[in-house]
Write a structure and sequence with these properties.
294 residues; alpha/beta; 14% strand
């Protein structure tokens, strides 16, 4: 399903931006979706959008918020202790083993039996290109989910089948174009930045740290251009009523690895509020007939 598929014209795709713990906004939106029986055919998630978005397929309302509040101050979860001791700010063993199997288990059976298709965006470090990996079996494909959320500079490269990956947000931060290319006539985009946000060029030393991967460096240095280009496309398509977009109605300043429980709860609550207030519009958009795009 990598090319235009006319069978998708009346199906619904959900595009989930990343944004580290700002992704709890998305978690709030998805919990309202689940509580109200909003049916999504395909999800394309990036970074935190992928890591939190899997709970839609496993039908686990509240899970993303719950474990983030519970383990925010646990040094085993994510932060400087993990970065210093493992090279990953998001602890691999804790987040992708102990958490998903023991502490707050992901419902793998429900996930795998769901008829919603799920794609995680990763960035191939050697090619600098985005890859869209279908996560059919959450247990077997967990490394792709980890790769999607592995932020540059604070994560080791994730090697899978001889390929090296990092955060999907580097190459395709809001994969709206991918959903369009796949032929979806109904697309809902969940952003994690307010409406007035635009991205500026990064000053991070990609060229120094990743000098062995010049294509990745080029992609990373130009990421802000692609991000802002996609923002313009979102606004254009919204005006034309081709897509529906939700974004935080309230600005909450958050660090990427936020430890303030009140802020974590607050951004989630904004997601709940924004989605609840737009629920009628969302339902109407999903049920309308869609004419094939040229």
């Amino acid at each position: 399903m990598n090319k235009f598929d006319k069978n998708n014209i009346n199906k619904v795709a959900l595009v989930l931006e990343g944004g580290a713990l700002r992704g709890l906004y998305t978690a709030g939106v998805l919990d309202v979706f689940m509580e109200n029986g909003i049916k999504i055919d395909t999800i394309i998630g990036v970074s935190a959008g992928a890591l939190f978005g899997i709970n839609y397929k496993s039908k686990q309302i509240g899970r993303a918020l719950r474990y983030n509040l519970k383990y925010a101050h646990d040094k085993r979860y994510m932060g400087m202790y993990s970065l210093i001791t493992t090279g990953d700010i998001m602890n691999k063993d804790f987040c992708f083993n102990k958490l998903v199997y023991e502490l707050d288990p992901l419902d793998f059976e429900t996930y795998n039996n769901s008829d919603t298709n799920f794609y995680a965006v990763v960035t191939n470090v050697e090619t600098g290109q985005a890859e869209y990996i279908e996560i059919k079996d959450a247990e077997k494909d967990m490394e792709y989910l980890r790769a999607s959320g592995s932020m540059p500079f604070v994560s080791n490269l994730v090697e899978i089948n001889g390929n090296k990956y990092l955060d999907g947000a580097v190459s395709d931060p809001i994969p709206l174009k991918k959903a369009i290319d796949m032929g979806f006539g109904k697309i809902i985009v969940i952003q994690t930045r307010p409406a007035d946000y635009t991205k500026t060029k990064s000053r991070l030393p990609f060229g120094f740290v990743y000098k062995k991967y010049p294509k990745f460096v080029k992609t990373a240095n130009e990421a802000y251009l692609k991000y802002n280009e996609t923002l313009n496309l979102i606004k254009q398509y919204e005006k034309e009523a081709k897509i529906l977009a939700l974004r935080p109605s309230k600005k909450i300043r958050m660090r990427r690895v936020e430890k303030n429980l009140k802020k974590l709860q607050a951004i989630y609550d904004v997601g709940i509020k924004d989605c609840s207030e737009n629920l009628k519009k969302i339902k109407e958009y999903i049920t309308q007939n869609t004419n094939c795009r040229s």
